[in-house]
Amino acid sequence: MHHRRAPPGAAPGTLIGDPTAAESAIRLIQYRETEIVEEMLDSLDGLRERLERWPTTWLDVEGVGDVALIQEIGEIFGLHRLAMEDSANVHQRPKFEDYEDHVFVVTRMIRADRAPETEQVSMFIGENFLVTIQEAPGDCFEPIRERLRRGKGPIRRRGPDYLAYALIDAVIDNYFPVLETYGEEVETLESGVISEPHRDHVVEIHQLKRELLTLRRSIWPMREMVNALIRDEARVITRQSRIYLRDCYDHTVQLMDIVEVYREITSDLVDIYLSSVSARMNEVMKVLTIIATIFIPLSFIASLYGMNFSTEKSPWNMPELKWEYGYLYSLALMSAVAGGLMFWFWRKGWLTEKKRSRRLRQPRGRRN
Predict the structure, then answer these.
(1) CA distance readout (Å), 292 to 89, 221, 228, 253, 297
(2) Which residues, at least 6 apart from 274, have a Cβ–Cβ distance to it below 8 Å?
(3) Which residue has the higher pLDDT, 100 or 243?
(4) Are 212 and 257 in contact (CB under 8 A)?
(5) DSSP per-residue string spanning 43-96
(6) DSSP H/E element including 149
(7) CA 2, CA 89: separation in Å to the nearest integer?
(8) Ramachandran angles phi, psi of 4, nearest 5°
């Protein structure tokens, strides 16, 4: 999707629509501990009156193609204009902003089918409402909706801040299976680079590094966002919810560690590739050198007997040329020299790699 920004000098809170953005779909979920209502809305008519009858309201908007709808949502819930602008212009990094009567949170949700691409999810957390605006249809929130429908756990007994925690936790946890896939790709690429290095591996390595960098750009600010939710004294975020948000923070730290490890491995793969290519080249050069070394004395013998010294002038001029077995003698001499050199190379271990005893490395404290 092409991200559009407000033109330079535009008034704060100016919403710029994108004609290529997905059409907006509205899902409304209202609940209390013993009851829940869920429906898809065609418009926001009568929403103000319904807010007063339910302790918790979750308005989920998928798609930012309808700018007028987003403006209407901001007016109904009293959302800050700057935050509404950021929710419509989907190029924001994960962040947290406190507007006293509500909290604005931006996170990046990864799509397993389009990894490493991420889409923006904006959250407005109030005392009795949660508004989420997603960049495109499709999300990882269905398990949260199912928990609400079945009333499992404390999710119905808690307020919108706990619901926001559950959504943020789902967004963060959705990175783990994607990173597991990247881990398998790193292992496969590493094995290929070591066993059968090919120049296409360099392209794959650089592509993998770019994708991991994209993930890092999403996860790093997300960690800062969750940390701000925990440490800042936002009125609409309860102390109990901050305790749960600590778990989200731990997960973001784990994600960063995994991404950094994969980035270090991929960075080292280039050196491994060059070392593997150099090692294979050395093996080829060793074989060619051995062949050339063997043919050096054979060439000498062949050139020696190719000299045109007349045997009629002197009995010492190539007497082997008049022998009945002179030709066989020269072939036997060449074979003996070549065989001797091959045997000597074999004794030196130059023809085959020397086997070395492999002793498993034991951890410290377990060695005998």
Answers:
(1) 69, 61, 70, 58, 10
(2) none
(3) 243
(4) no
(5) --TTHHHHHHH-SEEEEEEE-S--HHHHHHHHHHHT--HHHHHHHHS--PPSEE
(6) helix 142-150
(7) 10
(8) -105, 145
Q: How far apart are CA 38 and CA 47, in angstroms?
A: 13
Give the whole-angstrom CA distance, residue 168 versus residue 226: 9
Q: In the predicted model, is pLDDT for residue 254 greater than 90?
A: yes
pTM comes to: 0.76
The CA-based angle 154-160-166, given to 5 degrees, is 60
Domain limits, the chain: 25-272, 305-348
Residue 364 has pLDDT above 50, yes or no: no
**Strand runs (DSSP E) across the chain, as ranges?**
25-32, 35-41, 56-62, 95-98, 103-110, 118-125, 129-134
Other CB atoms within a 10 A radius of the CB of residue 176 amount to 12
Among residues 142, 130, 140, 137, the alpha carbon closest in space to that of 25 is found at 137
Look up tokens 């801040």; give the residue.
161
Q: What is d(CA 74, CA 71) in angstroms, rounded to the nearest whole number?
A: 5
Mean pLDDT estimate for the chain: 85
Using one digit for the tens of pLDDT, what is the confidence trace for 103-143?
A: 999 999 998 777 788 999 999 999 999 999 998 888 899 99
Q: Distance between CA atoms of 161 and 1, rounded to whole angstroms?
A: 30
Can you say how many angstroms the Cα of residue 198 is from the centroid of all Cα atoms in its chain? 22
CA distance between the termini of the chain? 62
What is the C-alpha separation between 219 and 253, in angstroms, rounded? 9
* CA proximity to 117, closest of 178, 203, 183, 173: 178
Supply the CATH classification number for the domain 25-272: 3.30.460.20
- State pLDDT tens for residues 292-307: 888 888 888 888 777 7
152/116 Cα distance (integer angstroms): 32
Tokens 């994209």 correspond to 214
